[in-house]
Amino acid sequence: ARAPAVLGARGLGSCVAVCLWDPRTALGAMAHCMLPGPSAGLGDPARPAKFCDQAVAALARELEAGGARIRDCRAYLVGGARMFPGLGPSPVGERNVEAARAGLRALGLAALAEDCGGNSGRSLDLDCLEGTLRVWSAFGPARTL
After folding, report:
1. Could you count the other beta carbons within 10 Å of the beta carbon of residue 119?
2. What residues have CB less than 8 Å from 38, skipping those under 6 apart?
3. In this structure, what are the phi and psi dihedrals at residue 36, rounded to the nearest 5 degrees?
4. Which of 65, 75, 128, 129 fits a 20 to 30 Å CA distance from 90?
5. Whether 33 is catalytic
6. How many CB atoms lie within 10 A of CB 41?
7. Where are the alpha helices (DSSP H) in 27-80?
8. What is the pTM of this model?
């Protein structure tokens, strides 16, 4: 989306929102990723944003098609909570965050800011005019990244 649009995601638990914003074009993109990657060939090429390992590259392609320069983009990660701590090792939220970071590294990017982990869900808005990310949960005040 282009400014003055605001992109939002509500109720992220173990999911991760990957946000990219190009300050030159005021063009932003967001993917609400549910899983680190497809398992046993169950990926859907028509829905790359579902998987963290595919979403970052898909966002980059869309932004470049709109005139953005990926190397100039700001990246943000939000989510990846451990919603059910008693379910054993390697929770999906942590794996989602790691897969999203790996996707950013593959593009030569690192997250400018993150609000990840913990045990509570989050919601967020990406302001495409300013490039700011507002994050909040039911358990704390809103903050701007």
Report:
1. 12
2. 44, 51, 54
3. -60, -40
4. 75
5. no
6. 5
7. 52-65
8. 0.91
- 59-99 pLDDT, tens digit each: 999 999 999 999 999 999 999 999 877 766 668 899 999 99
Peptide bond into 45 cis (omega under 30): no
Residue listed under structure tokens 């939000």 = 78
**H-helix or E-strand containing 113?**
strand 111-116
Distance CA 98, CA 93 (A): 9
Cα-based distances in Å from 81 to 42, 93, 98: 24, 5, 12
Paired tokens of 145: 């990244």
Segment 119-137, tens digit of pLDDT: 889 999 999 999 999 999 9
State how far the Cα of 59 lies from the Cα of 78, in Å rounded to an integer: 16
CA atoms within 13 A on the CB side of 113: 11
| Backbone φ and ψ of 18, nearest 5° | -105, 120
CA dihedral angle for residue 22, residue 23, residue 27, residue 32, rounded to 10 degrees:
60
Task: Write down the residue that tokens 């990310």 correspond to.
Answer: 133
Of 127, 135, 139, 143, which is closest to residue 21 (Cα–Cα)? 127
